[in-house]
Amino acid sequence: MSAAQNPLKFAWLEVTGLCNESCDHCYADSSPKGTHGTMTAQDWKGTIDQLAAMGADDVQFIGGEPTLYPHLRELITHAHGAGLGIEVFSNLTHVRESLWETFKACGVKLATSYYSDTAADHDKVTRLRGSHKRTRANVAKALDLGIPLRGGVVAVNQEQRVKEAAQDLLTLGVETVGGDRTRAFGRASKGAAPTIADLCGHCAHEKCAIGPAGDVWPCVLGRFLTIGNVLDAPLSEIWGGARMAEVLADITAVHGGGVQSCTPPQFLPMCGPCGPCVPSVGHCDPKEANSAPTTATISAPALSR
């Protein structure tokens, strides 16, 4: 599929692998031991410029925990100046006052994961004492500042208060709350090698992810399918190039041309909401519609499109 047939509209920018939390289900295997990688702030700016030149609409800054990346304000301002819509996916435990100012000035939207209405339950997932208190307080602050925010409740533990967590966010005033099940990537895989069958099949459809070392992936979960590196070649050559064609062929061979499952929009703000919405239903895969749900899945709104 050519770049003309499959324009690049959205990119996850994983600016750091460093995170102050150590969640067992982290697909990126982020933790306090993570690093900012080898991409410099100038490298990221150049990549943002390339995305804008290719006609991309939106970027989402992720990690790790993106608010721990020292140049996040600089990159947000640059992306805003390039005309891109911006969302920051953050655990909202570490937001400096200057960042709030940048969020407001650049029209940034926020997304966060939330695990329970109780501190003990939430902090058990994040493995960071006090994370629930800080996240909840910053959810309230974002809403007070008029910053759009969506929340996702990821079902990690069997006894987790998933529905109560979703209700707590709604009570705070978060208008869009969904859920997601744990996906077998990163630490959640328990050491198992990732496979294409574990993906949704929508990878590299109008979107890509770029990691801290410049690797370009078909999505944040498909990081084992590198299609290039922005430190080695322009993004315009990587997107629609020979390696990407190989990866797409491999994905199609597993999922078929008319894949039925939904893209995991916990990580993808360009997705529209699934219906019916969770956590009342507990799945986002149409193939699972007749099966009893065991975990929550998420439905998320689009960015400003």
UniProtKB/TrEMBL annotation:
The keyword Signal does not apply. Residues 202-248 form the 4Fe4S-binding SPASM domain. Gene3D superfamilies: Aldolase class I. Keywords: Iron, Iron-sulfur, Metal-binding, S-adenosyl-L-methionine. SUPFAM superfamilies: Radical SAM enzymes. It comes from the Bacteria. Coiled coil: none annotated. CDD domains: Radical_SAM (cd01335), SPASM (cd21109). PANTHER family: PQQA PEPTIDE CYCLASE, RADICAL SAM DOMAIN PROTEIN. This is Radical SAM protein.
